[in-house]
Amino acid sequence: MYIIEADYQPHPDNNLNDNPLTEALSVHLNRNTFLDGITVKPKIQSDFWSLPPFYQMTQLRQLTDAHLPLPQTWSMYNKLLGLMIYSYVKRHPLSRDTELLKARVAEQLREGKFPVGIPVGMTTAPTVLVSGDSGTGKTTTIRTVLRRIPQVIRHTSYKGQHFRNMQLTWISFDLPPNGAPKAMANNFFIAVDQAMGTSYAAEWGARHKESVDKHLSGMQQVALEHHLGLVHVDELQFMLAYAKNANSPSLQILESLFNKLGIPIVQSSTEAGVALFDTLDTGDHRIGSDITTVRRMLNDRAFKFSNHKLESDYFQQLFNSLYPQSLIVKSEGEDQAALLEKFKARFHQLSCGLPAIMIRLALLHHETLVTLLGKSEDEQKGYHTYQVGLLNRVYKNQFGLIDPALAQYRSGNKTEYESSIRTDTHKSVYSNKELQKEQKKCPKKQAQLVKNEMPQDQNLMLGLDTNPLDPVFLTGFEESNNV
């Protein structure tokens, strides 16, 4: 929880001024400065290979924090902050319209009514859609951008007028995979509590027997009380699994919750999920009764994320940050440039150009090499960084659970990839009863045994077989590419 005190500064756009909610927000105007501020590159010491093994491993942990802004980052920052600030223009906190809207929602809460599809606010706010395959960095990018915007701002007075409020500029929460509206409300309240130090989740948890409509109206009341500026709803594709639950959250409910209060929404989904939304019949409860709702799923800008090609600038830059010169162990007497290109091509094939996979694969590869080179000279067997066979073995031993999903990705079967990658999720909030019910739905996959070898000593800790160059692989490999 981090709260800043309001410092009111006018904007060059006069339309944005004379409003405490807008003047309290500052804007990053320099692209390079902004991107430099969110770029994290490992700082591996030049004496890395002379450090004790323990400190070599702690140095390598820096790779897990590596972050290279994706190409869409700067434009996304401008879009999201622009939508937020402009929405406040029409939601002045000291206006009569705002007070009337708060009173109307409070009355709905008392009566236990949540009027889906009926405009309760002054305007319908825009919706941005962010889509991309799992692992492409869409959620990380959204949340990185949002974290550059102060989330909670404390107001006491504005231009001599009493205005005591804790402004909540944005929140980000996940849709629940079980389709329970109260679980969605709980995720929302938890996100608010984490930002502000409030106890809305506990309050509404104690009111769990009250109606769904009251929980939804409670979400609106909290949003209005703290002048919520923008909402990010993640895992939108979970809504597709709500086919058997007619009372589950729908696109129309999300619109009624936030858009019709004038609060912009950023919705993120897998690419496969977006494609499936287009196939739903008119009137499907996951869309809502309003035929225009699916169009409102995107009524502003769309951002699409994908994996990165071998020759792309992003892949090359991220690879170079994960393999800095201070970590490279060269092979004497061989063409280093040729070895590098061959290694890089295999690294791209194994990681599929997905940033999350790239980072994990690089870390485990470096850790394995450190362990092997820490043995006696007789046992080192000429290991070096650009040894493709060693990279293959690290992948085989450490990516067995996710390899079936990556195999689908390599073959272009994105739907099966998403299905495989999502079988084990822990992001959303469940009751114990709901958790048991959901677990029964998920078949437990058994690991495919490829070879029965007994690892020894340090190899046991790393999951590395005694013969690191043995060409036996899990699904998803082409034998012609094995080295």
Q: How are strands sequenced across the largest beta sheet?
A: 5-6-7-2-8
Number of helices: 21
Secondary structure class reads alpha/beta
Helix/strand order:
EHHHHHEHEEEHHHEHEHHEHHHHHHHHH
Amount of helix: 40-55%
Measured between the Cα atoms of the first and last residue, the distance is 50 Å
Q: How would you summarize the topology of this molecule?
A:
Blueprint: E1 3-5, H1 20-23, H2 31-38, H3 53-60, H4 73-89, H5 96-111, E2 127-132, H6 138-147, E3 152-158, E4 161-168, E5 170-174, H7 181-196, H8 200-205, H9 212-225, E6 230-234, H10 251-257, E7 265-269, H11 271-277, H12 293-296, E8 302-305, H13 313-322, H14 336-351, H15 355-373, H16 377-380, H17 388-398, H18 403-410, H19 414-421, H20 432-441, H21 457-462
Parallel strand pairs: 1-3, 2-7, 2-8, 5-6, 6-7
Antiparallel strand pairs: 3-4
Helix pairs in contact: 3-15, 4-6, 5-9, 7-9, 13-15, 14-17, 15-17, 18-19
